[in-house]
Design goal:
The chain has helices spanning about 5-15, 45-60, 75-85, 115-135, 155-170, 200-210, 225-235, 260-275, 300-320, 325-335, 335-350, 355-360, 370-375, 380-385, and strands at about 20, 65-70, 90-95, 140, 145, 180, 190-195, 210-215, 240-245, 290-295. The protein has about 400 residues and is an alpha/beta fold. It has an 8-stranded parallel beta sheet with strand order 1-2-3-4-6-8-9-10. Strands 5-7 form a two-stranded antiparallel sheet. It is globular and about 65 Å long. The N and C termini lie far apart (about 50 Å). The structure holds D-allose and zinc ion (2 copies). InterPro entries: L-rhamnose_isomerase, Rhamnose_iso-rel, Xyl_isomerase-like_sf. One of its GO terms (biological process) is L-lyxose metabolic process.
């Protein structure tokens, strides 16, 4: 069978693929050394949403925008939701922030001082209120907590306080809301981190209940970690709530997903599909796994960077869907080591770009969304319009 024939078979499965884009990807960002300003950068949350809606308009792949509180704080979130919906996108995951307040220097949800813990918990309760107005399903918690020196903190006591704080937050969720807990092996803490790995995140969310899940950020592991194994395990346990997609060469680089290692993205998507994490699994049609980007575009234009990212995810999803699972299973069961590997590599090496372009055109989209965006004049327009004011960013 030719790959085009096979593509025709998997094409319907690509329908409805949804990738959530982060509002902060549209703002200026940088490293500890420099934040480069760029022309056309949004000055308000509305402008970030307008840019995200543009990514969706050109790709059909990004129907939700994830917000960060307080970076995206507005007076009226119901109005913001209407504004987004008028532009053809919805508001997605709400991200909390307990890493930019002096009170949290030694911890937030884990702090020894009950006043600081209460303040951090209250911030999450405020985020849940925002979710009610925006219609968001997920509260995403990434914690910058840990210690820099052995002996600095009681690691076990911090786990206990974390469990207690998360319990209060989880109990405040509505029935249709979820909590996703992200892990990261180091940074900003360098000796120990309170939620460093999927195991710790799993232990904490498993104690909370069914609507608490793990968030896997692809940049948050030690080099060489087999991330697709973690994906397989979490799906097996019913606890993979969301992805923060990005790619990395060294640490938490937050580069364009699929840029550093497209083969890894392919392998992850193979396990997502194998584990039933792809496609709508809930009665409301929303996928159980939220596929989010968590990226920063420090030197490249942000909208093209986001377009490239969602296209990379779509491309590796298509290749993963092309995997001949019957042939793979037969080879695995026959103990055919190289045969099984060849089946997997055949899918990975299938160039789906022309098929995807035709697929898009059939749906009224441009075959090449990136070129179509560059030719559309949108970039020139925002660069001309958005002068003055403070550019929004990773502030
Ligand atoms: C931090 O390293 C985590 O990846 C967070 O998910 C995220 O980048 C941060 O919360 C910005 O929103
Ligand atoms: Zn992340
Ligand atoms: Zn990160």
């Amino acid at each position: 069978m030719t790959s085009t024939t096979r593509f025709g078979e998997i094409a319907p499965l690509l329908e409805g693929q949804a990738i959530e884009v982060p509002s902060w990807a549209y703002g200026n960002s940088g490293t500890r050394f420099k934040v480069f300003g760029s022309a056309g950068t949004p000055r308000t949350v509305e402008e970030k949403i307008a840019d995200a809606a543009t990514v969706h308009r050109f790709t059909g792949l990004a129907p939700l925008v994830s917000l960060h509180i307080p970076w995206d704080l507005v007076d009226d979130f119901a109005a913001l939701r209407r504004y987004a919906e008028d532009l053809g996108v919805g508001l997605g995951t709400i991200n909390s922030n307990t890493f930019q307040d002096d009170d949290y220097k030694l911890g937030a949800l884990t702090h020894t001082d009950p006043r600081v813990r209460r303040k951090a918990v209250d911030h999450h309760l405020a985020c849940i209120d925002v979710m009610r107005a925006t219609g968001s399903r997920d509260l995403k918690i990434w914690l910058a907590e840990g210690t820099n020196y052995p002996g600095q903190g009681d690691m076990r006591g911090r786990q206990d306080r974390l469990a207690e704080s998360l319990r209060t937050i989880y109990d405040a969720l509505d029935e249709d809301q979820r909590l996703v807990l992200e892990y990261k092996f180091f940074e900003p803490a360098f000796y120990h981190t309170d939620v460093p790995d999927w195991g710790t995140s799993y232990v904490q969310v498993a104690a909370l209940g069914e609507r608490a899940m793990v968030c896997l950020d692809t940049g948050h592991h030690a080099p060489g970690t087999n991330i697709e194994f973690i994906v397989a395990q979490l799906l097996r346990l019913g606890k993979l709530g969301s992805f923060d997609f990005n790619s990395r060469f060294y640490a938490d680089d937050d580069l364009i997903v699929g840029a550093a290692d497209p083969f890894q993205l392919f392998r992850i998507m193979v396990e997502v599909i194998r584990g039933g994490g792809f496609g709508p699994a809930n009665p409301d049609g929303q996928s159980q796994v939220a596929f989010m980007l968590d990226q920063c575009h420090n030197i490249e234009d942000k909208i093209p960077g986001q377009i490239r990212s969602v296209l990379n995810v779509q491309e590796m999803t298509a290749r993963a869907l092309l995997l001949d699972t019957d042939a793979l299973r037969a080879a695995q069961e026959a103990g055919d080591v190289l045969g099984a590997n060849e089946v997997l590599m055949d899918a990975f090496y299938t160039d789906v770009r022309a098929d995807l372009a035709a697929w898009r055109e059939e749906r009224g989209l441009a075959g090449n969304p990136l070129r179509a965006y560059l030719a559309s004049g949108y970039q020139q327009q925002i660069e001309a319009d958005r002068v003055g004011g403070t550019q929004a960013g990773w502030n």
